[in-house]
Amino acid sequence: CEPKFDGLAISLRYEKGVFVQGATRGDGTTGEDVTQNLRTVRNIPLRLMGEHIPPRLDVRGEVLMLRADFVKLNERQRARGEKEFVNPRNAAAGSLRQLDAKMTAQRPLQFFAYGVADVGVIQKVDLLHGVSPAPTFHDEVMNRLAGWGFTLADERMVMRGAAGLAAYYAEMATARAQLPYDIDGVVYKVNDLASQVKLGFVSRAPRFAIAHKFPAEEALTTVESIEVQVGRTGALTPVARLAPVFVGGVTVTNATLHNEAEAQRKDVRVGDTVSVRRAGDVIPEVVAVVLEKRPMRAAHGNAPLHPPFSLPRRCPGCGSAVEKLEDEAIARCTGGLFCPAQRKQALLHFASRRAIDIDGLGEKIVEQLVDHAIVKTPADLYKLGLAGLASLQRMAEKSAANILAAIEKSKHTTLTRFIFALGIRNVGEATAKDLSRYFGNLDALMQASEAQLQQVPDVGPVVAASIAHFFAEPHNVEVIEQLRAAGVTWPEGKAMVVANASQTGKTFVLTGTLPTLSRDEAKDLIEAQGGKVAGSVSKKTDYVVAGSDAGSKLEKAQELGIQILNEDQLKELLAS
Question: Which helix (H) or strand (E) holds 505?
């Protein structure tokens, strides 16, 4: 058990004990390179000390600012007549992303380590040097990090069972105000390293760790109005516009009411005094109404001054009909891309950093492009010229040229990003990545039936129906063709989908070095036939694929009587 730091997640890479690179977590696969700025963080060791250091080591942790240092920083900001920081987390994140490392060096940042990317590298070095026993528990790895020169949370503990976790949570909640840094909860991790490997990861998160957050801070404010926002899929979301209130480290002026049923259940009305919190310390939401403070009409039998909230029957963006399906809580505009609000949101999603990534194409510019009927679909972005962009409000010629350069750069993307950018309902980043890996190219995906789509890991009937419906719409196919014609490209491979996958449901484990295939190549071949690649051998394992220098996994497979394959036998099996 350890405190959940309220900072910025960072990964540090060491080669032969020397710090060589540091990055933010980003999307879990690709982060932002902040190496030079991290070199200025005083408690990050640039060279590890001690014995038995692995040749390559990736250390995970958090960069943050201590409360006392934050107070001193804001005192200096006030003395200089400069803007103060809202909270230590924002101050730390902003400091680490400075373009000039000299600016970062002036900020009092700290790094706290909480794990490593691959424990196996430590265990291998121990075996090589005859160190016994090699670490088999997470807390032992943490002690090893402390010995190499990393700062760790003093409050970390090993607890057993639900009662132990609850006791740790209560203790940290009590101690929270006295800690030198901000935390927003605690993290529980399975201590046994072998169990961590078995549990593995899902998308960006480990299955062997879970956060237990503290209750969000709440504050009272008043509802000035209730507006309805239209999302890129047509979803209508009521949003309470609030008198500004400081809660959870930020000033909140808007709070989601989620949907019509939730707004009516809480009976939120204009003029009400409400309790507001940041859900998950991120999204502001209305918790409850303080009914005794509700404005009333004394002259009309003391009735409420304002009526209950209800969604409009027509879309506020385009006037199209609003419909709500029986099995959904969300009401949606039926206007599709005819609706300017949906068009704006679809374009912003398409251009977002994790999608096509058109730097500089923000909300204000997209609003003007749609309002002036310059852009109707994502494909129209690639038809923009300098004169048209420069004519927009607050758009200088240089800014317009920068956006055009970003649009040109975005033509070279990946299939995963392109699928995600299309904005298919129920398809997020992780699903886009699964679809990309499974089908290999866009044409195979577009031609796939719902049954074939459900063969993709983690794609169920609802998601499969959304994908099939999207590609069955002629308008969507036309936009994709226009994007390709405009030069939007990505590396495409051979379609990996197999109509009757021979290894569906089978579990493989790879060990050792194969003669011609890399681990990733072998994994792709197995997954293309519907198989699953696991990290450890168990009774549920169907095959172990062994190469040279195979270790304990091969021995365990032999003990359990699991069929062992070499590379040629694997290829023969998959080709059968």
Answer: none
**How far is residue 102 from each of residues 35, 37, 105, 185, 552, measured CA to CA in Å?**
13, 8, 5, 33, 48
How far is it, in rounded angstroms, from Cα 306 to Cα 299? 14
List, by residue number, the catalytic residues.
4
Place of tokens 């169990």: 195
Contact 536, 554 (CB under 8 A): no
Provide the CB-side half-sphere exposure for 250 (13 A, CA): 16
Residues 6+ apart with CB under 8 A from 311: 228, 236, 238, 260, 322, 331
**pLDDT < 70 regions, the chain:** 27-28, 203-204, 279-282, 298-301, 337, 493-505
Identify the bridge partners of residue 45 per DSSP, sorted by sequence position.
none
* Residue 427: CA count within 13 A, CB half-sphere: 27
Half-sphere exposure of 231 (CA within 13 A, CB side): 15
pTM: 0.64
Residues 6+ apart with CB under 8 A from 38: 10, 12, 19, 22, 44, 63, 96, 111
Q: For the chain, give the mean pLDDT.
A: 89
